[in-house]
Amino acid sequence: MDPLESYYEVVSQMYRMARTVFDAYCYVLWVKPSLTARKKLWRIGAVYVAVIMILGWMPYYINKALAYGLGTLAAFLVMCLLDREDYGQKVFLAITFFCMRWQTGIMIGDFSNSSHRLHVALLLKLKGHEFLSFFYQLAIESYEYWFYNFVFGSVIEFVLGAALMYGAVWLMRRAYGSGRSRLQGKELLFLCTPSVAGIFAYGIAEFYRNAYEAGTTKSVYDLKGQSLLVVLYSLACYFTILVMVYVFQRWKEEQEADEKRRIFTAQMKDMQAHIEEVERLYSDMRRLRHDMGNHLMTLEELYARGEYEAAGRYAESMKTQMQEVSTDMQSGHPVTDAILSVRKGEMEEKGIAFSCDFHYPQSGDLNVFDLSIILNNALANAIEASVREPYREIRLTSRLVKNMYIIEVVNVFTGELRVDAVSGLPLTTKTEEGHGFGLSGIRHVAQKYYGDVEIGVEECGRNTGACAADDTGHKYDGIRYCMLRVMLQIEIHSHHDKVTSQHCSLAP
Questions:
Q1: What pTM, to 2 d.p., does this model score?
Q2: Which of 52, 135, 257, 481 is the most exposed place for a label (fewest CB within 10 A)?
Q3: How far is CA 112 from CA 39, 93, 99, 157, 224, in A?
Q4: Longest alpha-carbon distance in the chain
Q5: Any idea what the Cα angle at residue 141 is, between residues 135 and 146, rounded to 5°?
Q6: pLDDT at residue 29 is higher than 90
C-alpha cells in the first residue's frame, strides 16, 4: 500500500477546489458586462463553488456533466435574482459558459493523459539502457518520486487550464462586446444553437464512456487515451460559437447603424418640411407687406368718403388674411415655430390637447438644428404614447436657469415605465421595429451641450408636479404623467438680454 495515498487525496482536493474557484471567477468575469446589477456579483461565483464542492463531497457518485450543469444552473438563478431583466440574455450566458467549461476540460484531460503516457514511455526506455537503468529502478521503488510528479503535474494542469479558460472567456467577451442589448427569441435561438449542440455531443460521449467502463470495468482512457478527434471537435465547437457571436454582434451594430441612418433621413425630411413651411410663411408675409401700402390707401379713401361700413368690412378681410399667413406659435425662431405648428396640427387630428410655453433662447449659443432634433423626437414620442390613453394631453415648456436651458415634455401616461438601469432610458418592446433610437438621439444632442436627459412618471396633484403650469390643476388630480426633461448647458452671450416667453395653447 502506498504510504502517501492520503497526501494524494489532499492534493487532488486542493486541485479540484482551485479549479472550481477559478472557473467561478471566469463565470463572473463572463457575465459581469452584460448585467445591469453592479453589486454582490460575487454571489454568482460563490454559489457556483458551493454547489460543485458539495456535489463532489457527497458519498455517492454523481456524473460530472450533471454536477457542472447543476452548478451553472444555480449560478444562473442567482443572476436572475440579482438582475431581474432580460432572462434570455442570462440563458445564453449560462449555456455558453457551461460549453466553454467542458471544452477546456477535454483539452486539459487530453494533456494530462498524454503527458502521463509520455512519462511512462520514457521510463520504459530507460529500463534496458546500460547506464541509465538505475533511474528506472529509482522511479519504480520510490513513492516520493511519483508523489512529487503528481504534484508537479497538478500544478501544470491548473496553470494550463486556467490559461485556457481565461483565454476562452476573454476571446468570447471581445466578440460579444458589452452584450447590453435585449435578446429576442430568434436571436437567442441563433446564439445558443452551437452551444446546445456541443453540450449534447459531450453528453453522448460521456454516456457511452460510462457505459463501456461499467460493462468492462476498464477505463477508456487507460486503453485508448484521449482521442484527438474529441479534442479537435471541442475546438471546432468553441470557434463555431465564437464566430457566430462575432457575426451576430457585427450584424446588430450594422442594424443599429442602418436604423440611425433611417432616423437621420427622416429627421432631415422633417427639417425640409419645416423649412418649406417657414419659406411659405415668409413668402406670404412679404407679399402682405408689399400690399400693405395699397391696403392703407384703400382704407384712407373709404374713410375719406365716409363709407365706414365698407371700411370695416375691408379691415376685417385684412385681419383674416393676416391670420392665414401667421402662426399662433411664437417661440422666438421661425424653425421652431414651424416644428411646433406641424406637431400641433398632428395633435389636432388625433384629438390631443396641447399647451405650449416654449421659447427659443435668443441670447444662448444653441444650434437650432440640434433643438429641432430634440423637439421632433420628444413630441413624436409623446404623441405616440398619448394616442393609447383615454385622456390625451401634451405640455411643452422651457426655461433658462442661468446657463442651463431646460426643456420639458409632459404627456398623460397610465402604463408602466420600465427603465434600463444602465442607460436610464425607457425599455421598449418594439426594438425590432426601430423604436428607442429617438431618445438616444435626444441624449446624444444633450451630451453635446454637456447636459443629459431625465425621464420619470409622477402622479398629478392639485397644482403640484406636472400640473403646476395649469390654472385648473384640480381637474387633473390623480392622473399620471410621464415627463421628459432635457437639460442643455449653453453659453450666454449677454446677461442683459431677456428671453421672452410666448404662450400658446390648443384644446381639441
A1: 0.64
A2: 257
A3: 38, 28, 20, 7, 14
A4: 144
A5: 80
A6: yes
